[in-house]
Amino acid sequence: MTATGELSLSVLERVKEAWRPRFLANGIEPYDYEVTTQRIARWEDWLPEWRRTAEEHVAAAEEAARAGHRATAAQYKRLAAMCLHFGHFNVVEPESDWLAAQRRKAELFRDVLPYLDPPAERVAIPFAGIVMPAHLRHPRDAERHPPDAEGRPRGAGRTPVVLYFSGLDSTKEEATTFEDVLLSRGLATVTFDGPGQGETWERMPGRVDWEKAASAVVDFVEKRTDLDSSRIVAVGVSLGGYLVMRSAALEPRIRAAAGIGGRFDQSDRDLEDPMHGPRFLHFWGVRTVAEARPLMTASTLDGVIEKMDRPVLVVHGARDTLATPENARRIVERTGGPSTWVLYPEGNHVCNNIPHKYRPLVADWLADQIGLSV
Amino acid sequence: MTATGELSLSVLERVKEAWRPRFLANGIEPYDYEVTTQRIARWEDWLPEWRRTAEEHVAAAEEAARAGHRATAAQYKRLAAMCLHFGHFNVVEPESDWLAAQRRKAELFRDVLPYLDPPAERVAIPFAGIVMPAHLRHPRDAERHPPDAEGRPRGAGRTPVVLYFSGLDSTKEEATTFEDVLLSRGLATVTFDGPGQGETWERMPGRVDWEKAASAVVDFVEKRTDLDSSRIVAVGVSLGGYLVMRSAALEPRIRAAAGIGGRFDQSDRDLEDPMHGPRFLHFWGVRTVAEARPLMTASTLDGVIEKMDRPVLVVHGARDTLATPENARRIVERTGGPSTWVLYPEGNHVCNNIPHKYRPLVADWLADQIGLSV
User: Fold this and answer.
1) Is A203 on the interface with B (CB under 8 A)?
2) How far apart are CA A139 and CA A184, in angstroms?
3) What gap in Å lies between CA B323 and CA B328, rounded to an integer?
4) Residue B140: its chain A contacts at CB < 8 A?
5) Which residues partner with B188 through β-bridges?
6) Whose CA is closest to B223, among B256, B257, B255, B253?
7) pLDDT of B71-96, one tens digit each?
8) What are chain B's domains?
9) CA–CA separation, A314 vs A325, rounded Å?
């Protein structure tokens, strides 16, 4: 029996309610959420039932492709990939199942990239002997926007860019709906699987000095002739809300950082928790709680965020039970530069229940920091 | 007490469940649906509570505009307009409240049009002494598509176009999410408030010879230098699924017609039904069931659809309780030309619970009829 299998049925039902907003905000169809979770009576059913819905979409994609309907085929592959994503994101054991689902998701999503609107380019970012797969998207029709606050035409030449930091169990494929909002404000997006995440996980586990990976992404941006490396900002969600603050504090080429649902530190995480514990061990690539503990304790902004001398925005939901507002608030209390704190009373973890509120706010704030106005 | 006020609480709760998919498919945020319907304990609360949510979004739009965040202001105005739309769509009494909500929705949505992606142009279509307001949208980046089946470059010159027919209680503002799918297949969209619908209602009530309004839209397309009047197709939902078949049968310039959730005839509608009856009287602009009855009886495809010699597609949900599959199926049984019948076993009225399935299917079918392939 897996660790998550020990969770009670009532927890399962509670989780179904709690997770719905995140799934819907990030590309799962409401119908799929209802019919798939209705089939899930035990934790062991979670991945198989999402895989079943995914394979229905794969079959629909193949049928559409045979009829020459490429856009429809891409839509179904995207739905299939997202079902696989949410099928395995919380089920890290057995590892072989997790890895098979992760790989299949990534494979399916590669075919989707040209059909995203605007499309994405798959790029490989070198870092410490590996490459981190990433998605680069450019804002569409930047030229229809008025000149920016410094009088420069929009969309001509290099595009300002936001780096997108995923969390403990999210990956670049989950970010496209948030990217859409950032793109509509004139920002290009670079969303990458960092150490311990998505496709990069099997090449490199999570690491305390995660900021080194972020600096590699900045190096990548500097080499692109289509991106403006003088206007790099960054955003992160959940654990990514911590990672983005750590990285920005230690990487001065990032001009501003926004975190949603992130923590100041990870030291008080309950690694014995049957749902969350195994996922942290998985992230770090270790087998025991004893190995993970010092890595968690070292994952703190204490002594780090004080170095941050550029603007930070921290957005949090008052109803967040995974990262308390009190913990997150220490980021703005301790940062060395200007800060903005936004607490949504109705918000859950990452404010996933109110994407229409927090995403425009974050996108506008990031654009404002580099003189864009939309 | 209004007619709808006589409906029981259990009906209210059932309706909340039944309507959720349509709201979510057409632009209402899941969060807004849950919190707004939770506040609704009586039918009399329906419009006021949706108006309350709408006004919260209007306030957010004004705040965003003051900060120079125009895209965000437009997003909130769109949410406000859709809350007003679904606040009044089923509450036609008192008429002054209905009209005030309809007008405010339309006013708010005008500011949204440049921010739709792709944007919409507001156009006025002359018909029988009035003008019918409509939204015209062009596919973005048509040139990135391969040449069409007849070897012509896509996006150069005139764009093929689909005319969008709304239903008894839907309007052009509700159609944008379906339009997005049609646009991504290379079709321009013309979505109009016809007789008895939306902004046109106060200028002209519903009429049995509704096809004359459709012909006026075709005339409009012929005058546009950016649209290809040799490649006009049409789609309609719910009552629009009936109207589109009637119009296409009698208007040979429409090359193909698709209907979703439409009926063959309206004669067996229960005009005494406290929810649906008043809405039909409203559509026809009459005060009594006795006046409405002959108009309903005359609204049939019997003797009309036999004239249809171009392709028709009828899509229906087996779980549709407003228009039975048996009634709809008579369209394909009686049409004079080629026909395709698609019944989704899991589909509800208009298959609003599975937009990810029926919309790509319809869009691809329409594109196929005029030699586009995507």
Assistant:
1) no
2) 6
3) 7
4) 117, 140-141
5) B161
6) B253
7) 999 999 999 999 999 999 988 999 99
8) 4-110 (1.20.1440.110), 117-265+300-369 (3.40.50.1820)
9) 10
Tokens at residue B244, please?
Answer: 């589109």
Q: Which of B72, B184, B362 would you mutate first to test chain A, the one with the most A CBs within 10 A?
A: B72
Q: What is the pLDDT of residues A207-228, one digit of tens each?
A: 999 999 999 999 999 999 999 9
Whether chain A has a CB inside 8 Å of the CB on B352: the answer is no
Confidence band, pLDDT 50/70/90 cuts, at residue A10: confident
Rounded to an integer, the average pLDDT of B211-224 is 98
Question: Position A161: which residue type?
Answer: V
pLDDT above 80 for B157: no
Chain A contact present for B361, CB below 8 A: yes
Pairwise CA distance, residues A354 & A178, whole Å: 12
Work out whether the CA dihedral A243, A246, A250, A255 comes out positive or negative. Answer: positive
Where residue B326 falls (left for φ over 0; alpha for ψ -120 to 50; beta otherwise) is alpha
Under 8 Å CB-to-CB from B191, ≥6 apart: which residues? B134, B135, B163, B164, B166, B172, B175, B179
Q: State the Cα–Cα distance between residues A21 and A15, nearest whole angstrom.
A: 11
Contact with chain B for residue A327, Cβ under 8 A: no
Residue A249: its H or E element: helix A239-250
Compute the half-sphere exposure of residue A252: CA atoms within 13 Å on the CB side of its CA. 4
Q: What percent of chain B has pLDDT over 70?
A: 93
- Residue B78: exposed, middle, or buried by beta-carbon count in 10 A (0-12, 13-18, 19+)? buried
| Dihedrals phi, psi of B235, to nearest 5 degrees | -140, 145
What is the rounded CA–CA span in Å between residue B59 and residue B61? 5
